[in-house]
Structures are given as structure tokens and as C-alpha cells.
Amino acid sequence: MAGPHVEGRALACKRGMATLFRDVSFVLEAGEWLAVRGANGSGKTTLLRCVAGLTHADAGSVERAGDFLYAGHLPAINDSLDASENLRALLALRGVAADAAAIDAALDRVGLSGRRMLPARRLSAGQRRRVGLARLALDPAPIWILDEPLAALDDAGQALFTQLLGGHVRRGGLAMVATHHDLSPPPVRELRMGA
Q1: Of 5, 25, 35, 30, which is closest to residue 187 (Cα–Cα)?
Q2: Contact 126, 174 (CB under 8 A)
Q3: Per-domain residue ranges of the chain
Q4: How does DSSP assign 61-89, residue by residue?
Q5: What's the CATH number of domain 1-66+148-195, 3.40.50.300, 3.30.70.20, 3.40.50.150, 3.40.190.170?
Q6: Alpha-carbon torsion (50, 55, 57, 62), positive or negative
Q7: pLDDT digit string (tens) for 15-32?
Q8: pTM of the predicted model, to two decimals?
Q9: Contact 75, 110 (CB under 8 A)
């Protein structure tokens, strides 16, 4: 396979005596996104962490070609930093540099222009999540691995995420998204956990 891609082969993972999932296989190529769905506790987060290399699967293998961005179900925000500083720090963790104008434009795009200098502890849960949306707008990684990116977002925030996802796949990126929401564009593939 040429270009960015992610493939999981016969993945299995246990937690103690409980089997979260087994025999999970998928292929995801450039221009596609996969929705990972299932009840709470069905292993969605664990699967994404296995794909990102943050958790070791008990069986199976993952092949990933291309730079990737992982965003967990928590927004990964430092309460003592403002929105601009948080965005800059999130990008720096992946070695992505962005100048002040790009940071400001991304925060404007996600509706945080008037709050960019507030300490994150003063932002609502949805506003904190919007800092992550600004990160998606600036990070050039072709592979997105996202765990519940719509959590705490209002309708406008969800629509913005949909725009970002659509643009990402149109540009040849790919995404693996754990979500309980129906999104547009619809996923090329859907993986049901716990089924």
C-alpha cells in the first residue's frame, strides 16, 4: 500500500479476566475514515490506543504508515495556560511549529477569538474541546486517531468538527474516530465493538 494507511490484523485485548475485543481487523487508506462504535466499556478507547502504539494488544498486529495525531477522550489542556499557549504546546509535542498569526487564525476559526488569553481553567468543557479542534486545523499529520472528539461540543462545534474531518479526508488524510454520533461525510467503514 502506498501513502498513509492503517491496518489492524486479528487484534485482541483483555483487561484482567475480561476480554474487551478479539479478532478485530480493518484496513484504512488515504481519503477514508473509520467510525469505531460501541457501548461504553466495549474497548473503543483501548483499540485506538493499540493503533496509536500507546497500549500493547494481547494478540494481532497493527501496521501504520504515515505520521499520526492521537487525541484521547480528555482534551489534554493545562489549566494554567491560556488557549493560545495550550495550542502551541499541543503542536510542539508533535514537533509542529505555528506562528502567532496561525495560532490566532485557528482559534478564531473555532470560536475562541475572545477567549484566547483566558487561563484554560476559566474555559467551559466545550471551549476546552475547541482548542483541540484548532489543533486539528493546524497539525499536518495525515492520520488522525481520535477518541470521542465531539464530547462536550455544542451543535456549532460538532459542525466545525465535521468540516475539519471532511477537509482532512478530501486532502488524502485518513481518520479513525471513536464516536456515538452520526457524522458527515459518512464513514467509509464502521467497526462495531462488543457486537
Answers
A1: 35
A2: no
A3: 1-66+148-195, 76-141
A4: EEEEES-EEEE-SS----TTSBHHHHHHH
A5: 3.40.50.300
A6: positive
A7: 888 899 999 999 999 999
A8: 0.95
A9: no
